[in-house]
Amino acid sequence: MPSSGYDSACLPDLLPLYYRRLFPFSQYYRWLNYGGVQKNYFQNREFSFTLKDDIYVRYQSFSTQSELEKEMQKINPYKIDIGAIYSHRPNQHNTVKSGTFQALEKELVFDIDMTDYDDVRSCCSAADICSKCWTLMTIAIRILDRALRDDFGFQHLLWVYSGRRGVHCWVCDEAARKLSVAARSAVAEYLSLIKGGEEMVKKVVLLDPIHPFIRESLDVVEQYFPQYALQDQDILGRKESVDKVLALVPEDVRKDLQQDFQNAKKPETRWKLIKEQAKRKQGTAKKGQYFEKEIMLQYCYPRLDVNVSKGVNHLLKSPFSVHPKTGRISVPMDLKELDTFDPFAVPTISLICEELDRPRTGEEEEKSAEEKSDDVKEKENEKDAAERRKIRDFKRTSLAKYVKYFDQFLDGMARSWKGDLLRKSDLQKEF
Q: Which one of 65, 82, 170, 331 has the fewest beta carbons within 10 angstroms of its own beta carbon?
């Protein structure tokens, strides 16, 4: 995966600058504090840091934003993971009575990794991605975002690019954070269609009638399938790929199609023949009548790591963490621009640190006049001063637009926190 100008050997030099001047601590704290509606919510949250040479430090917790900031600037983690809200402060877990330290709450999370699609993409494999297979992530987000909002009623979904080969979703509604392990498992199972490991050839079996959720998902897949599967992956072009597709159709149909394919070489024509055979089959057979839909879903439907979603105490990589291999920042995604999102355009830590030192343009020079007047105020309050400087710093880099998406997401959540706080104060009024 090309990462313009990034050299992992420079990471120890770049991370201190990133955590000192660019990491959006105030937004980060605003997110994980959830409006201060629940006491000790931030304080009882587990953070896990991976340091140089894969030294792994779990059960870190902090009382304030300032404490978190100081620690991250002191140890400059290579990776940040976020865990659950516990019954006690995670950094004191060794001092509490055995069995009483429990994970109580966490966002409902989803992890979609491109390596899980290796059997259905021919352009790349393992950790590699390209614009052709990135479409799979776009489809996954479209399907899951719709289902989580419409079928489950969740509103506050934060989609994040992992920095290398996948995406994460953080469902931040209070109802989602309070879900039990059984409820999380039920949601994950509802959203899972691809069943069976490598040895299983046919991974999708549709029953009659097709569930409304699957119909909705098929509507999404159908928009992308011709370009993604027939053109970019050429699944009906090379003999090896054709055999894989034909292995998913009933045996009697397979023979007819093999015959038809002798004369029809174009992928679009071959797909049309498959659809015609499926239509014919639907009129006569009880089983196997949806095989063309099963093929589309097997090639395009999201592949979830359900274990990540089921466990309350499962760790997940944090937004704004740096991917050590690519140098890319793990950034929030704007779903309004999903079809044009380019993982290769996501800034690397080297790029944003370099942008900090670039000479300012005329427009930025004007801004610096405002900043001069700020400098006078800054002496009055050192903490605010540092915060204002940091805001100015990331606004001068390619990170700015991603922090803006994060801000917009937090504003949406703040409206619900406000409602919660008002309800709380109304309940506490004495009459």
A: 65
Torsion region of 361: left, alpha or beta (phi above 0 gives left; psi -120 to 50 gives alpha): beta
Complete DSSP assignment for 275-334: HHHHHHHHHH-SSSTTHHHHHHHHHHS--B-HHHHH-SS--EEPTT-B-TTT-BB--B--
Between the two ends of the chain, the Cα-to-Cα distance in Å is 64
- Kindly write down the DSSP assignment for every residue of 104-171, as one continuous string: EE--EEEEEEGGGGGGG-SS--TT---HHHHHHHHHHHHHHHHIIIIIT----EEEEE-SSSEEEEEE
Task: Quick: pLDDT tens for 232-281.
Answer: 999 999 999 999 999 999 998 999 999 999 999 999 999 999 999 999 88
39 close to 355: Cβ distance less than 8 angstroms: no
**Phi then psi dihedrals of residue 164, to 5 deg:** -140, -75
The token pair at 385 is: 């001063």
Tell me the CA distances in angstroms from 275 to 268, 294, 335, 361, one per residue in order: 11, 11, 32, 57
CB 399 within 8 A of CB 329: yes
Question: Which residues are tagged catalytic?
Answer: 46, 111, 113
As a whole number of angstroms, the distance between CA 26 and CA 135 comes to 33
Average pLDDT for the chain:
91
Give the integer Cα–Cα distance in Å for 201 and 289.
18
pTM of the model: 0.91
The number of beta carbons lying within 10 Å of the beta carbon of residue 372 is 8
How confident is the model over 326-363, as pLDDT tens digits? 999 999 999 999 999 999 999 999 999 999 988 766 54
Secondary structure of the chain: what % helix, strand, coil (to 5)?
55, 10, 35
Structure tokens at 51: 């340091």
